[in-house]
């Protein structure tokens, strides 16, 4: 388990950026510590650490799934991560077009709105 946690932290930092992960870790409390460990080991130490597909494709899948399921809160974080995963703006648009067809236009439309806002923020920074 320790290896999967450590691998998860390494992958999480490489995808989301060290500053983001450090802020998240600083905000961790005893209440959510077990949950944070779970997502670090499972999402980052297992799924994102897999070499079955590349980070670009994984990023596109993640964004599409977040949008399709209406989990909009994490979209800006994963849009920012595209600078490290290699998913281009075109890739993101293509992923959200799939969402529009297979999961609904309103979800894709909202995801695109969030992506546009986040890209604009990134360009200002």
Automatic annotation (TrEMBL):
The lineage of its organism: Bacteria, Pseudomonadati, Pseudomonadota, Alphaproteobacteria, Rhodobacterales. Residues 34-116 form the Carboxymuconolactone decarboxylase-like domain. This is 4-carboxymuconolactone decarboxylase. One of its GO terms (molecular function) is peroxiredoxin activity. Pfam families: CMD (PF02627). InterPro entries: 4CMD/NDH-1_regulator, AhpD-like, CMD-like, Decarb_PcaC.
């Amino acid at each position: 388990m320790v290896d999967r946690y450590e691998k998860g932290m390494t992958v999480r930092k490489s995808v989301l950026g060290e500053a983001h992960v450090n802020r998240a870790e600083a905000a961790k409390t005893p209440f959510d510590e077990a949950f944070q460990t779970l997502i670090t080991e499972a999402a980052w130490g297992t799924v994102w650490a897999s070499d079955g597909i590349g980070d670009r494709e994984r990023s596109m899948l993640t964004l599409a799934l977040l949008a399709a399921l209406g989990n909009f809160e994490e979209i800006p974080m994963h849009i920012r991560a595209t600078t490290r995963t290699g998913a281009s703006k075109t890739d993101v648009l293509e992923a959200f077009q799939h969402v529009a067809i297979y999961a609904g236009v309103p979800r894709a439309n909202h995801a695109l709105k969030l992506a546009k806002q986040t890209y604009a923020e990134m360009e200002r920074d």
